[in-house]
Request: fold
Amino acid sequence: MTPEPPTKPLVSLRDLTVELGGRPILRGVTAAIARGGITALIGLNGSGKTTLLRALVNEYPHKGTIQFHCGHDHSKAYPEAIGYVPQRLSLDARLPLTVRDFLALTLARRPLFLGISKRVREKSKAMMERVGVGEYLDVPVEGLSGGQLQRVLLALALEPQPELLLLDEPAAGIDFKDQKKFYELIAQINRDTGVTVLLVSHDLNMVQTYAHDVLCLKGGSIQCQGPPSEILTPINMSLVFGAELHMFPHRFGG
Ligand SMILES: Nc1ncnc2c1ncn2[C@@H]1O[C@H](COP(=O)(O)OP(=O)(O)O)[C@@H](O)[C@H]1O
Ligand SMILES: [Mg+2]
Reply:
């Protein structure tokens, strides 16, 4: 088999259509997710961003094609290759567990009541240090701030090392200073590991600073795609966000 040229996108979507509750949510989405880059997915609430991420992890039946060009067989779900930090944690974050126990539940191959093995202890420590919260292993999950919890979820999404990292509004609910640090961390992980990142964000300043490519969804269709310098123009943004653009504070180039 000849190796794929490096310019090929990691994922190509062709005419992707997803219906939920009998309603078309994604309508013929054709787009490419650049290999090794950070692609930002933007659009109003309800435009289908989360649906697109969930379609990528095979959670929703779809028409059209989702093609991964990474050498693995993606005709079946291949969860190891995709890390996913969801928009909302669908389990109760008031877990009466320490972060160490929470990580062990995922990493250990035996019940937690048998104690945590040395392998899992070392692994958990390394995972937390990698995302800058190594000192929080003995803190209860419910004692974490929004930003710290996002880092724990990010650590889990990075284990095992994915080829594609999906982040659904990862910095929502984090205060401004920590948001910037969180984006810095994503950029650093992208640089260090080459993982392809697709992240949903409402913060156009962060998108401008950290994304290599921008994908705009409107009413379930692609409105525009390209590098931030071409896409984040006042005209494009008023097409994507319409009258609600004022909700997204952003300093356009002039
Ligand atoms: N499971 C579902 N069943 C029916 N409709 C859904 C479901 N999930 C999402 N939707 C609808 O799909 C549209 C897009 O939702 P979503 O992908 O969450 O948008 P976004 O993430 O851009 O805010 C919304 O109108 C939402 O109500
Ligand atoms: Mg969403």
Residues 20-21, 25, 43, 45-51 surround adenosine-5'-diphosphate (ligand 1) (CB under 6 Å).
